[in-house]
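Student: I would love a firmer grasp of how sequence relates to backbone shape in proteins. I am handing you a single protein, as its sequence and its fold in token form. I am told such tokens are a discrete way to write the fold. I hope you can help me see how the letters and the tokens relate. Take your time, and here it is.
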Amino acid sequence: MQLRNARLCLDCEEVHDAPHCPLCASESFAFITRWVPSPSADAQPASTAPPPPRLQPRERPPQVTPVEPVSQETLETYRQLLSDRPEQAGWRLVKRGALGLAIFGIAGWAWKQQNQRVGSPEPDDQREPEQD
């Protein structure tokens, strides 16, 4: 087994080179070269790699085009999108919680009013007197 092909199963810690672990059939693995560098993978033969081009004394390196400046409005927009402002998130949560409590309070009050009208007997002064 070559080191660059060796895989470590993350479930049973078996070293293998197959797409599935031969012991537990798991597909979760990590290549061993993640922790142990492979000398064959790092070293390239000198004959296959062309030497880097050298600049002549009269040549200049290629010019890098300058990046266009970004407007303040765009920068502020990116800052707002990327920043997690906990004070705004906290107040948003408080507002939503207060709104939820208000809705539940009104719903509970309406439920009580509905049950009192339907299930309650008539007041004593509107009842007919019982005859003996």
User: Anything to note?
Assistant: The first helix runs from residue 39 to 42. The chain is about 35% helix and 5% strand. The CA atoms of residues 101 and 107 lie 10 Å apart. The helical segments are 39-42, 72-82, 86-119.
